[in-house]
Design a protein that fits this description.
about 20% strand; about 170 residues; six-stranded parallel beta sheet; Rossmann fold; globular; 5 helices; alpha/beta
Length: about 170
């Protein structure tokens, strides 16, 4: 069996091993994935974060699943085609946001699941509806805010199912 990787990209004001990423990393490991989390602290420009992701992943050999939260979701989508991602799992991704449009991501054609909070006051939930519609992605909208911290159990459930469901693509 080829190597399988989950690579996490955190949000703008977060860190590589925050509570959501740490929880999902355990699930990925249980499913037999190698787990990596890119450190973007100190890099505020989305394009520079994409460059960091591409450099980080250049030596990984095997199937790649990208997981991103907020700006990390944008970064995952933006890098997905070049990295030939086999799956994307996005949490309140910063898609269609002002200032990000000059570098418009063209996502990889791969299974994609999004989790977004109804009460997100940072990134409109309608942005995830739009992306899900355009990409035929699965979308779970939960009763939460942008950080989704009160939904870690649900996120883990969705993530475990996502990894199980894409097994044939890896």
């Amino acid at each position: 069996m080829a190597e399988r990787y989950v690579v996490f990209s955190h949000g703008k004001d977060s860190e590589p091993w925050g509570s959501k990423i740490a929880a999902m990393a355990e699930i990925a490991r249980e499913e037999g994935f190698h787990v990596e989390s890119v450190d973007y602290r100190g890099i505020d420009d989305p394009k520079d974060r994409v460059t960091r992701l591409l450099a980080f992943c250049k030596d990984l050999r095997g199937s790649l699943v990208l997981v991103g939260s907020s700006m990390g979701g944008y970064v995952s989508v933006a890098g997905s085609s070049l990295l030939q991602a086999r799956g994307m799992f996005l949490l309140a991704p910063a898609l269609y946001m002002p200032g990000y449009d000059k570098f418009s991501p063209r996502p990889a054609a791969c299974p994609t699941t999004i989790v977004h909070g109804w009460r997100d006051d940072v990134i409109p939930v309608d942005n995830s509806f739009r992306f899900a519609r355009e990409q035929k992605a699965t979308l779970h909208v939960v009763d939460s805010d942008h950080r989704l911290l009160d939904q870690i159990r649900a996120i883990n459930h969705y993530f475990a199912y996502f990894l199980f469901s894409i097994d044939e693509f890896l």
